[in-house]
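Lab notebook: predicted structure, single chain.

Context: the supervisor wants predicted structures on file for every construct in the current expression panel, including those that have not yet been purified. This is the next one on the list. No modifications to the sequence; it matches the entry in the shared construct table.
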Amino acid sequence: MDESAVKFQIRWFSPRDNQDETAKLKVWSDWELDYLRANYKSESRRQMSQVLGRSVQSISTKAFKLGISARPAPSAAKQSRSGVRTLFSQEDKAYIRNNYMHLSNEQLARTLKIPPSTLRAHLYRHGLRRNEPAVAWTPEQEAIVKAHYAEKGDVELAELLNALFPDDKRTFSKKSVWKKRSLLGLIRTPEQVKSIMQSAFNRARCDTIIQNSGSLNYSDGYVAYALATKRNPELIPEMLKHPELIELKREQLKLNRLLKSSNHDES
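Prediction complete. Output recorded below exactly as produced.
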């Protein structure tokens, strides 16, 4: 080979932090290790890189080998990048466990300053249920439904059951009676439904509804709500201060309903 040939020396550099790869072989001194342990949780790796004169990757690798973590202790509450807490402290868990039965999810979430969805997930994950086990219907209660479903509506049946079984663990409702009828296969015929609707009990309920209906009687509150519209309900108190405006709107509503009724009859 020609001795005048040019000699080349090849040195490798890290493309990540532009430092000589051989620098990673530098032995860590005691003061560097002490600094790493004392500041890894409070300072960024880039800041420590400038102090120690080492790459960010070198600092991360050494911390991993020493078992140093920047994460908070398990007992401390953690925050995500958006600032929303994703872990609960032991005090938070105890507060939820002691209060979830008599406070709503919204109240608990407001106190802990977390989204209600995060709280619901925590309750579900830890088996904290508010719903008590379902109470089975007794044969006597089922017998009453079977005996009276054809001439009484579900609301009337629920009131009857509540009166006959005041000490029962459940409160009978229209929905619970309807579910039980469905499970028992107790389906009313159109004639039975018509007879129930024309009963004195339902006529009395209809009369009460009509008497208390703001939309049918055009009460001041209903008319003010119509003036304010759904988008501006905060204007209702202001509208009520102008009785002449309320009266004009009331007459307009009556006229509109009369026109709509006449058009319906013609069709």
